[in-house]
């Protein structure tokens, strides 16, 4: 018998009692989803607004270039969506609809169907995501169940403005994407 056969024979001869899988804890949150989601967004350096608050904020923000693909704010665009994302290098504000939000961490799911261009949520200087408060789930487990086997070409979770830090723990907001995130709950 070769060394290989000896090793495989020894492995086959070992009997290990089967173990059951561990119980999956119940990760559901107790309490109000909107409040938990709001606290998560605030913790991620974002801001949560009502539609009225957003309507009051936008005229004072003074963005020269705005693209709104949101069904709730269809008349806010000051430029049309170009085919080439390079033309958006100086985009001030993008307004997009989110599919659903996750209360435990403030993550918001966006799909191709709401983006226009995949680069849009990253190339804009400031990002607004409009989200129906009825589309909040408690946990990422529930969020991934909503995504399931969706036939989307692209999707992502966004949980706040872009953040990065170096080894000295110097936090930089907006280095790799939007400098701010505002979520409008409708």
What do these coordinates show?
It contains six helices and eleven strands. By secondary structure, the chain is α/β, with parallel strands linked by helices. It has a single domain, classed as Rossmann fold (3-Layer(aba) Sandwich). The longest helix has 11 residues, at 3-13.
What descriptive keywords fit this protein?
5-stranded parallel β-sheet, Rossmann fold, alpha/beta, 186 residues
Query: What's the alpha carbon Rg, rounded to whole Å?
Result: 23 Å
Number of helices: 6
The CATH architecture can be named as: 3-Layer(aba) Sandwich
Q: Major beta sheet, specifics?
A: 5 strands, parallel
Q: What is the CATH class designation?
A: Alpha Beta
Low-confidence blocks of residues = none
Largest beta sheet: what is the strand line-up?
Answer: 1-11-6-3-2
Assess the beta-strand content as a share of residues: 15-25%
> How many individual β-strands?
11
The span between the termini is 73 Å
Structural class: alpha/beta
* pLDDT averaged over residues: 89
* Helix content class: 25-40%
Question: How are helices and strands ordered from N to C?
Answer: HHEHEEEEHHEEHEEEE
Shape: elongated
Briefly characterize the structure.
The protein has helices at 3-13, 33-43, 51-61, 112-115, 120-123, 140-147, and strands spanning 47-50, 66-68, 93-97, 100-102, 108-111, 126-131, 136-137, 155-158, 163-165, 171-173, 180-185. The chain is of the alpha/beta class.
């Amino acid at each position: 018998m070769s060394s290989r056969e000896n090793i495989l024979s020894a492995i086959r001869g070992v009997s290990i009692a089967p173990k059951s899988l561990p119980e999956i804890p119940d990760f559901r949150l107790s309490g109000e989803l909107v409040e938990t989601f709001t606290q998560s967004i605030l913790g991620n350096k974002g801001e949560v607004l009502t539609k009225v608050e957003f309507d009051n904020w936008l005229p004072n923000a003074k963005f020269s270039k705005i693209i709104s693909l949101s069904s709730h704010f269809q008349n806010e665009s000051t430029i049309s969506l170009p085919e080439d994302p390079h033309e958006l290098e100086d985009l001030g504000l993008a307004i997009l609809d989110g599919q659903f939000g996750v209360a435990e961490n403030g993550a918001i799911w966006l799909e191709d169907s709401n983006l226009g261009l995949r680069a849009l949520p990253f190339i804009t200087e400031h990002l607004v995501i409009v989200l129906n408060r009825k589309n909040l789930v408690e946990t990422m487990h529930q969020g991934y169940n909503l995504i399931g086997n969706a036939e989307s070409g692209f999707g992502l979770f966004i949980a706040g403005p872009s953040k990065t830090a170096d080894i000295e723990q110097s936090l930089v907001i907006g280095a790799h994407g939007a400098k701010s995130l505002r979520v409008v709950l409708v």
